[in-house]
UniProtKB/TrEMBL annotation, chain A:
Alphabetic keyword roster: Cell membrane, Cell projection, Cytoplasm, Endosome, Hydrolase, Lipid metabolism, Membrane, Protein phosphatase
Residue ranges occupied by any Myotubularin phosphatase domain in the UniProt entry: 164-537
Protein name: Myotubularin
GO cellular component: filopodium; late endosome; plasma membrane; ruffle; sarcomere
Compartments in which it is found: Cell membrane; Cell projection, Filopodium; Cell projection, Ruffle; Cytoplasm, Myofibril, Sarcomere
Organism: Salvelinus namaycush
UniProtKB/TrEMBL annotation, chain B:
Domain Myotubularin phosphatase intervals: 66-505
GO cellular component: cytoplasm; membrane
Matches recorded under Pfam families: 3-PAP, Myotub-related
Biological process annotations from GO: phosphatidylinositol dephosphorylation
InterPro entries: MTMR12-like_C, Myotubularin, Myotubularin-like_Pase_dom, Prot-tyrosine_phosphatase-like
Gene responsible for this protein: mtmr12
Keywords per UniProt: Cytoplasm
Family of the protein in this entry: Belongs to the protein-tyrosine phosphatase family. Non-receptor class myotubularin subfamily.
Subcellular location: Cytoplasm
Protein name stated in the entry: Myotubularin-related protein 12 isoform X2
Coiled coil: none
Domain of life: Eukaryota
Native source organism of the sequence: Salvelinus namaycush
């Protein structure tokens, strides 16, 4: 574990490294003594002697290998031994550093900004344009979509025992929730993505609303994202509905169909008042009127109350994470760490998202239906509904259930992964980029921290998800919505991340998991309990001890093993006891026999 | 009436239904007993002891009290120290300011002992297996033009240096760590964040939590103490230099740093009994002025000497324990309870300023003849405060004894010469340097004198950034090695690693209790399994079989587990065991100030029973 840059992730159970079990023969990078195994479909493009300017151990000479999937660096010397293993998808920006005439050591080279909270700098020899070829290749392969190339997910030949694409079947999931009911029906109106091109094909809507009503409502909701059911409480039939903002505009337009539609939602379980959670700060909601959007006014929506949740927009979140990166990479801010942390506002945003979700969950447990929206209903809305569902429904806290939750609330309902992450796109300054999904996973992590026994999956799963959010190795997080995925044949041409996870599910399980099915989980959304996810955001820093297993987990596993061992021994003993004649014999021949002597030797050893 | 307790509980009583007279009486009664100045004689401990007969046998169960010369000799033997045990002060003939028994470098002469009332006298704390040792001393204020104390100091330094390889580093903690008054100021600010009596106030303060925390500086003081301890550890462990830490008085930050150093280096002190012995050695026998520092007597003129130095130490221990859980036999709950017990004026442990003070008072207060001093319990008699079940919560289920415990202790203390041979040669260990010190002592003394005020006397570069980067390297070198919970432990001092002692500070605040969650949810599962394993082991033992495996979870106590297991049917909250969630409002805390008016009702549930039964009354702030 002496390597400076990748404390954990160069080990065998590296989530980025976990390859399929099917393919035995594969090309390896010619590396001595440690060779990295290439993924099926991965091909070497270039390799080059280079100097890695490691922010922790200084300049390191070595060799860089670039494939169509990753950048791999291995130091030439064993001390310090440094390896880098970066999927090209994680690269956000590649720049030349210094010019042919730059002075100073190591001033000529490449500067790479990654999406996973690190920057890499490489230095090359100044003479002979030595960086030109590597820069060009890196630029092409890191941003394939900008160069008419395929994302690696389409080139990968990985095979898994399990097909991850079958994890989520909308009909099955709705049936699990007890749908349809006499108040809620399943509609195929969006079968060809005509009602709403960013929604999935299968939707659950109030029984009373006709297809015609849905069409009318869709004209009054931003991008046609009408209120549809996300989750229903089995006992009290309260529902979480999600949608986009109403198109009220400056003139304060009204839409009778929309008003009636929301009232039908309220009626469905006899709630007196429907609560509409607008995730935005009220100021922003008002400002949206200028661009044709807005919010549900009290006077127009009679039986509804509107609550603003004060969660900021994608731009604020992007800047916040950028600030966070500034204080943790490469070095953790030393003076006034806490004030610096506060000034990034990252945890404050986490707090607001969590407390919004708590309010939603609380309303639902109280038997009141809620409608959640932000502007377009694919960022903050997804955060709130999925977190509330995680609190309310223990199924989503299992390994499989969590996958369903992501597939449903995020992937099928059109969180714009492609725009937010910018897969294969060179335009690093795109204003659409934002770490909304990272923030959501952070919220989930905060919950797992507060309730260490309530989740079937472990931190490793969350890390793996975030790694492959960027990596482009799997099709799971590609494209903005279901219709785009359909057009690009994601399901038939790429592998799902869940194939990887479910083929090796034991390594993503939390040993402390104690199922409690009927329990609503309310995390405490106070800064006193929220903490920075150090093992994710600061994981590149070698000073942060990366433990494969937490000591608590380790101890627990040890004890479990010990218990089994003792139980077995006890069984054996009871067997021998029951046959008194043989006891002598078995004592001398059984493995136990060695123990007394061994014990004695311990006592007498002078060391 | 609002009462703020030292353990950070806040009580609100309505007096509107009481008669005015009664209300006054209650109020005055509390003020009289809690806040007004009084004499030591009036403390509850004395009425308590007179009315309770306490069996002497039980007292000294296993904690080494360091109140006899044997205890000191034994501890020095244990660490293979080679110094002079001084027992001439057993009746305080040398000086009342000196402990009854103590250890000094072997070539300190009799007359050196009494000079300057013990000031400047290097007191042995602990010996490293290499032979070098840690000493602490009260510094002698330097008077200009007066060469005598300086000459004496140099003599003492030489004595320390002679202990091992003629090397010594000194550190004046008064120069580099915050003063006791600053510690108090910072803690007073810090503690206000937790003395919250209503929800609105709580959530209002939540957004600025991190910066307020930062501004009060408490965590930074903790970090500085830990960092200082790591510096000392580096000298002992890496350079094998003797270290002399000093400060005015020699019994505040010296105690903090020396006990931290010992915790980091010596796994014995990370056991429950070892830790209690450490507190006895460094703090009680070491003469930490508990009475003045905690101001039990509420004397106005002592107000400025009040300072939570011992709490600061416990805070540092908590940080170590958080970072390296499995290395400690005692639990977080133990530390919390110990920090509370400082304010329970029943135990002799925390009542006095030093040995002679204790001796005087206990003799004077004794109802009997001079022969037997008053017999009071020490805080280590946990059964005075807690029943067995509660005491089981003191042990940490993550701790496992080192395999082959009996022999390992001996094993780690290798013969000195072997150790020396294996060391890389460095400047002060080479013979020429030795000779230099001996022959040209005057010359060196001059150098010593010049560098007197610098951080480390023999380190050529004494700038602080240098030191901190060297500490950093030391930490990093240690970190790359596999972690041994029974070996050297170093804390990570980076910003995110130094944290707030959640259990101690948040336990009474209803809004932040995580129902059914918190680390206890995980630990109780470990305890459960531990209990099963121990039960199985007992069954196996009954079968007369000794096990081949190396006794990992094998302490012959199963109570820990069973007690928590029994409770796991009840839903634990993050405040366990201080608050149980019997009459819990199953409502989430929603952190919006608008909603707060609905939630002020929570007070009653908030103050649910504490674990301690039969403890003395809490004194009030």
């Amino acid at each position: 574990m002496a390597s400076a840059s990748i404390p954990v992730y160069n080990c065998s159970n590296n989530p980025l490294e976990n390859s399929s079990s099917q393919n035995a023969s594969r090309e390896s990078l010619k590396m001595e003594p440690l060779a990295v195994t290439l993924l099926p479909g991965e091909e070497r493009v270039i390799d080059k002697d280079i100097m890695y300017i490691c922010p922790f151990s200084g300049p390191v000479k070595g060799k860089v290998f670039i494939t169509n999937y990753r950048l791999y660096f291995k130091s030439a010397d064993a001390d310090p031994s440094v390896t880098l293993n970066v999927p090209l998808g994680a690269i956000g920006r590649v720049e030349k550093m210094g010019g042919a005439s730059s002075r100073g050591e190591n001033s000529y080279g490449l500067d790479i900004t990654c999406k996973d909270m690190r920057n890499l700098r490489f230095a090359l020899k100044q003479e002979g344009h030595s960086r030109r070829d590597i820069f060009d290749i890196l630029f092409r392969y890191a941003f394939p979509l900008s160069h008419g190339l395929f994302l690696f997910a389409y080139l990968s030949q990985e095979k898994y025992e399990e097909n991850g694409w079958s994890v989520y079947k909308p009909m099955e999931e709705f049936r699990r929730q007890g749908l349809p009911t006499d108040k809620w029906r399943i509609t195929f109106i969006n079968d060809n993505y005509e009602l709403c091109d960013t929604y999935p094909t299968i939707l659950v809507v109030p029984f009373k609303a006709t297809e015609e009503d849905l069409r009318k409502v869709s004209t009054f909701r931003s991008r046609g994202r009408i209120p549809v059911l996300s989750w229903i409480h089995r006992e009290n039939q309260a529902v979480i509905c999600r949608c986009s903002q109403p198109l009220v505009g400056m003139s304060g337009k009204r839409n009778k169909d929309d008003e009636r539609y929301l009232d039908v939602i309220r009626e469905a379980n006899g709630t007196a008042k429907l609560t509409i959670y607008d995730a935005r700060p009220s100021v922003n909601a008002v400002a949206n009127k200028a661009t044709g959007g807005g919010y549900e006014g009290d006077d127009t929506y009679q039986n509804a109350e509107l609550v603003f949740l004060d969660i900021h927009n994608i731009h604020v979140m992007r800047e916040s994470l950028k600030k966070l990166k500034d204080i943790v990479y490469p070095n953790v801010e030393e003076s006034h760490w806490l004030s610096s942390l506060e000034s990034t506002h990252w945890l404050e945003h986490i707090k607001l998202v969590l407390s919004g979700a708590i309010q939603v969950a609380d309303k639902i447990s109280g038997g009141n239906s809620v409608v959640v929206h932000c502007s377009d209903g694919w960022d903050r809305t997804a955060q709130l509904t999925s977190l509330a569902m995680l609190m309310l429904d223990s199924h989503y806290r299992t390994l499989r259930g969590f996958q369903v939750l992501l597939e449903k609330e995020w992937i099928s309902f059109g969180h714009k992964f492609a725009s937010r992450i910018g897969h294969g796109d060179k335009n690093h300054a795109d204003q659409d980029r934002s770490p909304i999904f990272v923030q959501f996973i952070d919220c989930v992590w905060q919950m797992t921290k507060q309730f260490p026994t309530a989740f079937e999956f472990n931190e490793r799963l969350l890390m793996t998800i975030l790694d492959h959010l960027f990596s482009c190795r799997f099709g799971t997080f590609l494209y903005n919505c279901e219709s785009a995925r359909h057009t690009n044949e994601v399901r038939s041409k790429t592998v799902s991340l869940w194939s990887l996870v479910n083929s090796d599910s034991t390594s993503y399980l939390n040993p402390f998991y104690t199922p409690e099915s009927s329990r609503v989980l309310y995390p405490v959304a106070s800064m006193r309990h929220l903490e920075l996810w150090v093992t994710y955001y600061i994981r590149w820093n070698p000073r942060i001890r990366q433990q494969q297993q937490s000591p608590v987990e380790q101890r627990y596993m040890e004890l479990l093993a010990l218990r089994d061992e003792y139980l077995k021994k006890l069984e054996e003993l009871q067997l021998t006891d029951s046959s008194p004649n043989s006891s002598h014999l078995s004592n001398s021949s059984a493995p136990n026999a060695a123990s007394p002597t061994q014990h004695i030797t311990h006592l007498h050893t002078p060391f | 009436m609002i009462i703020h307790c030292k353990d950070l509980r806040v009580f609100q009583f309505s007096l509107s239904f009481s008669k005015e007279e009664d209300a006054k009486k209650i109020f005055q009664g509390i003020v009289h007993h809690c806040l007004e100045p009084k004499s030591l004689r009036c403390l509850f401990a004395f009425s308590y002891c007179e009315n309770t007969s306490y069996p002497e046998v039980q007292r000294k169960k296993q904690t080494v009290m360091f109140d006899s010369v044997e205890d000191w000799i034994q501890d020095m033997k244990r660490t293979k120290g080679n110094c002079r045990v001084v027992s001439e002060n057993s009746n305080f003939e040398l000086s009342p300011k000196l402990p009854q028994f103590f250890i000094v470098p072997s070539n300190v002469s009799d007359e050196d002992l009494t000079k300057y009332q013990g000031k400047g006298l290097p007191m042995w704390c602990w010996s490293h297996h290499s032979g070098c040792a840690l000493f602490k001393t009260a510094s002698i204020p330097l008077v200009q033009e007066d060469n005598v104390p300086q000459t004496y100091m140099e003599k003492m330094l030489t004595a320390v240096a002679h202990n091992h390889l003629y090397s010594v580093k000194t550190e004046d903690l008064s120069d580099t760590l915050p003063a006791v008054q600053d510690i108090l100021l910072s803690y007073n600010k810090f503690k206000q964040f937790f003395l919250i009596d209503n929800t609105t106030e709580f959530w209002m303060s939540d957004m600025k939590w991190f910066s307020s925390l930062d501004n009060c500086g408490w965590l930074d003081i903790i970090r500085q103490c830990l960092q200082k301890a790591v510096e000392v550890v580096e000298c002992l462990e890496k350079e094998n230099t003797n270290v002399l830490i000093m400060e005015e008085g020699g019994s505040d930050l010296c105690c903090v740093v020396s006990s931290l150093v010992q915790l980091m280096l010596d796994p014995y002190y990370r056991t429950l009994l070892g830790f209690q012995s450490l507190v006895q050695k460094e703090w009680v026998a070491g003469g930490h002025a508990f009475l003045d520092r905690s101001n039990h007597l509420h004397l106005k003129d002592k107000a400025e000497s009040q300072s939570p130095v011992f709490l600061l130490f416990l805070e540092c221990v908590w940080q170590l324990q958080q970072q390296h859980g499995p290395a400690f036999q005692f639990s977080e709950t133990y530390l919390t309870v110990l920090s509370d017990s400082v304010h329970v004026p029943v135990f002799t442990t925390f009542l006095f300023n030093n040995d002679s003070h204790r001796d005087n008072i206990l003799r004077a207060e004794s109802p009997h003849t001079q022969r037997s001093p008053l017999n009071c319990p020490t805080v280590w008699d946990w059964s005075v405060q807690f029943d067995c079940k509660a005491q089981d919560l003191f042990t940490n289920p993550l701790y496992s004894e080192k395999p082959k415990q009996d022999t390992s202790v001996r094993k780690s203390y290798r013969p000195k010469h072997l150790r020396q041979l294996s060391l890389p040669s460095s400047a002060f260990k080479t013979p020429p340097k030795k000779g230099f010190f001996k022959d040209e002592a005057d010359n060196l003394k001059k150098i010593l004198g010049v560098k007197r005020l610098s951080r480390w006397m023999l380190s050529p570069s004494s700038e602080s950034p240098q030191t901190s980067s060297s500490v950093r390297e030391f930490y990093e070198a240690w970190q790359t090695k596999p972690l041994d919970y029974h070996g050297l432990l170093l804390p990570c001092l980076d910003g995110p690693s130094i944290r707030v002692w959640m259990q101690r500070y948040l336990r009474w605040i209803h809004d932040v209790q995580i129902l059914g969650g918190g680390p206890v949810a995980m630990l109780s599962k470990v305890s459960e399994i531990l209990g099963e394993v121990q039960e199985l082991q007992r069954q196996l033992d009954r079968h007369g079989c000794t096990l081949t495996s190396n006794h990992k979870g094998a302490r012959p106590r199963a109570k820990t587990a069973s007690v928590i297991a029994a409770r796991s049917s009840v839903r634990l909250s993050s405040s366990f065991p201080f608050v149980t969630s019997r009459n819990w409002l199953f409502k989430p805390a929603i952190p919006t100030s608008l909603l707060q008016s609905l939630m002020v009702t929570g007070m009653a549930g908030n103050l649910a029973d504490r674990e301690d039964d039969g403890g003395g009354p809490e004194s009030l702030v």
